[in-house]
């Protein structure tokens, strides 16, 4: 991590360093990120209450530094999990579980996309991105489709920070867990019920927490990332046509969108001991949104280029807390785009539309008005 102290700044503009709290930053954070990377690579942002790290190499080093730990759940913009929960989430994506997930995502993407096929105009955020991640998890878990809306509401109101538990969701899941234990099927809930850790089946609470993580923790993040992905492709019809003609390009196009426009712009850490000029107990804000646009790491970083060969994986974090949901997120993007392009081959922006991204910590367009026919 950079060891420049506030008293020893490299040559740059005079006056106090800029702050993430500046109202203009929420509209467009990239001018601030540029200034930070060039002149204040490590700086204390008093109004925001954290040390800001903005260069790619420094953000990565900070996320991997064992002296910088994730704050307790609920105090971080990203979703958090303890080690046990984390390894279970990772396990949920292997073997038969990943097949159930993939089938759930594919089916759901198809159903949602078909609904748009006969429409003249639609908002892809409200009618597609917002629903796909949660509805896909509902399908993969083998829960009734008609319960998607209430499951979605619980997840959005109660599970933002920690995958896991919501009293109403737990109560809803309990009878399904009991049934799958007695009569296992091929769905993901049956797979989780049959999973063994240390030779023992997972307790009901752990199964419910895992299902909650799948339904909620990554849902909002994936929905935002999907919105930015579609916006980038709609902005570049030539690249959209290339991805349509060669679906094997989709994974790279998705990774490139995550680099340029990650859904989580800020991930927080707390210093357990002094780290360079950062005192023990201080909060460090790792600016993922800035790291992805660092010209020292990426050529022409502001440009969206679906053919870029190395967009890097930093949007998913790095080190001990990096995201265990990358596969599910990628499946959602791949199946989502494929289904949309099949149902709406002429997909394009509605006339005059190009909504800007919004948000400081989580960032994505709030609407995507498109023409379907
Ligand atoms: C494009 C979609 C996604 C992005 C960009 C993303 C990004 C991230 C990032 C940056 C972190 C690290 C937070 C930190 O270091 O404090 C993280 C952690 C996590 N993500 Fe995701 N995520 C996505 C989708 C998902 C999905 C679909 C799941 C569902 C299972 C998920 C579950 C988790 C969990 C449980 C953690 C906590 C890991 C830990 O603390 O050890 N994420 N994610």
What does this structure look like?
By secondary structure, the chain is of the alpha+beta class. The chain folds into 2 domains: about 5-80 and about 260-315, Uridine Diphospho-n-acetylenolpyruvylglucosamine Reductase, domain 2 (2-Layer Sandwich); about 85-255 and about 325-370, Cytochrome P450 (Cytochrome p450). Helix content is about 45%, strand content about 10%. It has 16 helices and 12 strands. The protein has helices spanning about 25, 30-40, 55-65, 85-90, 95-115, 125-130, 130-140, 150-160, 165-180, 190-195, 205-215, 220-235, 235-245, 250-260, 290, 325-345; strands spanning about 40-45, 50-55, 70, 120-125, 195, 200, 265-270, 285, 350, 355-360, 365, 370. The strands form 4 sheets. Strands 1-2-8-7-3 form a 5-stranded mixed β-sheet, sandwiched between helices. Strands 4-12-9 form a 3-stranded antiparallel β-sheet. β1 (about 40-45) and β2 form a beta hairpin. α8 packs across α11 (about 205-215). The termini are far apart.
Topology:
Elements: H1 23-27, H2 30-39, E1 42-45, E2 50-53, H3 56-64, E3 68-69, H4 83-91, H5 95-114, E4 121-123, H6 124-129, H7 132-141, H8 148-158, H9 167-182, H10 188-194, E5 196-197, E6 200-201, H11 204-217, H12 219-235, H13 237-245, H14 250-260, E7 266-271, E8 283-287, H15 288-291, H16 326-343, E9 348-349, E10 357-358, E11 364-365, E12 369-371
Parallel strand pairs: 2-8
Antiparallel strand pairs: 1-2, 3-7, 4-12, 5-6, 7-8, 9-12, 10-11
Helix pairs in contact: 5-7, 5-16, 7-11, 8-11, 9-10, 9-11, 12-14, 12-16
The chain binds protoporphyrin IX containing FE (HEM).
């Amino acid at each position: 991590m950079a060891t420049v102290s506030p008293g020893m700044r490299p040559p740059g503009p005079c006056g106090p360093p800029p702050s993430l709290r500046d109202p203009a930053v929420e509209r467009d954070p990239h001018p601030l990120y540029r200034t930070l990377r060039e002149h204040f690579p490590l700086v204390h942002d008093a109004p925001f209450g954290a040390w800001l790290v903005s260069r790619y190499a420094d953000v990565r080093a900070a996320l991997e530094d064992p002296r910088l730990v994730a704050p307790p759940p609920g105090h971080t913009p990203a979703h958090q999990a303890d080690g046990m929960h984390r390894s279970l989430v990772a396990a949920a994506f292997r073997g038969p579980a990943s097949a159930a997930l993939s089938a759930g995502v594919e089916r759901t993407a198809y159903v949602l996309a078909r609904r748009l096929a006969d429409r003249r105009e639609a908002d892809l955020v409200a009618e597609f991105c917002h629903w796909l991640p949660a509805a896909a998890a509902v399908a993969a878990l083998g829960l009734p489709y008609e319960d998607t809306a209430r499951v979605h509401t619980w997840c959005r109101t109660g599970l933002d920070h920690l995958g896991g538990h919501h009293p109403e969701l737990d109560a809803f899941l309990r009878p399904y867990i009991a049934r799958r234990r007695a009569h296992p099927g091929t769905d993901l809930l049956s797979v989780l019920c049959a999973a063994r850790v240390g030779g023992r089946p997972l307790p009901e609470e752990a199964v419910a927490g895992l299902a909650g993580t799948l339904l909620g923790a990554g849902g909002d993040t994936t929905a935002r990332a999907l919105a930015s992905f579609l916006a980038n492709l709609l902005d570049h019809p030539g690249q959209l046509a290339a991805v349509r003609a060669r679906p094997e390009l989709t994974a790279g196009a998705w990774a490139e969108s995550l680099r340029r426009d990650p859904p989580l712009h800020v991930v927080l850490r707390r210093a357990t001991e002094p780290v360079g000029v950062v005192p023990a107990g201080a909060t460090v804000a790792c600016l993922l949104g800035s790291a992805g646009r660092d010209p020292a790491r990426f050529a022409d970083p502001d440009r969206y280029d679906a053919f870029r060969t190395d967009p890097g994986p930093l949007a998913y974090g790095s080190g001990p807390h990096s995201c265990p949901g990358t596969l599910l997120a990628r499946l959602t993007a791949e199946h989502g785009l494929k289904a949309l392009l099949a149902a709406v081959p002429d997909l394009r922006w509605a006339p005059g539309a190009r909504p800007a991204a919004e948000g400081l910590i989580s960032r994505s367009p709030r609407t995507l008005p498109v023409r379907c026919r």
